[in-house]
Hints:
The chain is built from 8 helices and 7 strands.
Amino acid sequence: MRNIDPCEARRLLDAGAVLVDIRGADEHRRERIPGALCVPLEALHGPLPLPPGVPVVFHCRSGLRTDSHAARLAEAAGDREAWRLEGGLDGWRRAGLPTARAAGAPLELGRQVQLVVGAVVLVGSVLAAMLSPWFLLLTALPGLGLLVAGSTGFCGLARVLARMPWNRARPRAATR
């Protein structure tokens, strides 16, 4: 599977190719290329359910995920022609091509986890330096959480953050 630059990908899409976004659903909601299908990498099992012969262009945010999972994406493409979008969504945007952004969408869940973990470690370290070394225990909690998340794939903090009001889908206003 080869890389394709954004302008050439646009021509392929205009000719009927399908664009598949392999990022998570929360990333896709925040900003996406219009018309892209959201098929998160973790949900990509077996061939894509598309009509035979339809060319496919895969993309992520920066191109790193599509590059590192090229064999899996080629398997999902099956016998179809398939490409990886060079630079991903970032490259598409740099080429001056349109994206759709959700107004007021929260940060991606992974970034929210990183912010909370970083803040807890920073606060715990500052409190330990200024008040008591016992506050170093506060820094152990996110460390333990990261170990569990890395070894099991379960991130309790992400689950908690996903239930926060700013991450819940907002009902759309009725239109007349």
